[in-house]
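Whether sequence alone determines local backbone shape is best considered at the level of individual chains. When preparing material for the folding task, we compiled for one chain both its residues and its backbone structure tokens. The sequence in question and its structure tokens are set out directly beneath this paragraph.
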Amino acid sequence: MQMGRTRAEPSAAPPVAHARFGIGEVVRHRHFAFRGVIFDVDPVFANSDEWYDAIPEAIRPPKDQPFYHLLAENDDSNYVAYVSQGNLVADDDAGPVDHPSIPGLFEAFDGARYKLRPLHRH
């Protein structure tokens, strides 16, 4: 019997919220006038602290929720957005998103969602 050694208790991982939206779904921002198609999901915040700290504290979302990468559009342009789950809602419009990167990642819009091209599935 060895004395003086203790076995470390396994630490519990923090709970992770389940993603409410999936790849290919069209969503819109809860507060800002843009919508987009989801092309990737992070189970928790996975961007830089600099990016996070640039969000005004009054509207800064918690990091312990899924964050979504969107091919986004608004009335003026299209771009890539990174948005917390709490700031997204399903897009009731359900129309296609006009973004030049969509054809490279997705097959045609089926009226409800985009289907990821087989090349990009894993």
Remarks:
- The beta strands are 26-29, 35-42, 67-73, 78-84, 88-90, 106-109, 114-116.
- The chain has two helices and seven strands.
